[in-house]
Amino acid sequence: MTDTITIRTPDDWHLHLRDGAMLRAVAPETARHFARAIIMPNLVPPVVTGADAAAYRDRILAALPEGSGFTPLMTLYLTEDTDPADLAQAHADGLITAVKLYPAGATTNSASGVTNFDKVRPVLETMADIGCPLCVHGEVVDSDIDIFDREAVFIERVLDPIRRATPGLRVVMEHITTIQGVEYASEGGPELGATITTHHLVINRNHILAGGIKPHYYCLPVAKREEHRLALRRAATSGDPTFFLGTDSAPHTDANKLLPCGCAGCFTATNTLSILAEVFEQDGALDRLESFTSLNGPKFYRLPPNDSTITLTKGDPVSYPDHIDTGDGPVTVFDPLMPLHWQVST
Ligand code: DOR
Ligand code: ZN
Asked: Which domain holds residue 207?
């Protein structure tokens, strides 16, 4: 029986670190196990210019524990006013790794996002020219589209037309949650990648809604039916280089999660690797964990995989905190509803 595995140090290709006291509390949770992460720009106000990204990167670096080698890979928040020249300069300077597209109104702090996709066409063309990937929150926001169908409709109405109109644009479908997302990504060729979160490999919509509403399992895109979760499991554990880890670990204080209109997001930074090892072992795919966490993402982003390694050891159920304290209040750590046996050795 395998009870130790050593893999290249993972990267998180979709992470929310927030700012201020929250940033200082959550950054060490990711930096403990990950070498790099794509940092989401949905602050208030959002990270829209190269100067914003530089300032935010410096705040992240200042929040890391002494001696941490963690590298934040910065992104810009695409708006209808994004300046292609500023974006191109930030990319040429190595300041940003990608740009994030939020349809306006789709999720937390997306009000400055895009409503008219034609308006961002020149920016997308610049990105295709300079090889800067576009990370996409793939949900339409139309009130007449059922929330469980918003990803599939986005692919058809928005994503596919954008990709056809912008040859050469490299796109990451962020946090896919559906069979349609898996199928579209796997047929998209080398210019299309897709991240999958830890929590969408574990929960389906029953976990949110059956037997009482569970705000800590509410995130966007919302978890779908079991058949979709199983498709995500097959994709993540397949070894297909299209699919890589983007945890979308998204901390909100318990006070903000438990409101009558609670915030979307699951905070998984603390126990993500233990959960993933459990999931991959359950699916007989421990030998493909490294591809998902540490190899496929760098390949898509044209970065070298990390030279360092981490070792996971199997043993008695792992203990981890049920919440972390932040200066803004406690943040609940995602409960995968199963014992975890794999621990990252330090
Ligand atoms: O659940 C989510 N939380 N989905 C998102 O797209 C945004 C994120 C957040 O920032 O809290
Ligand atoms: Zn996110």
From this structure: 4-344
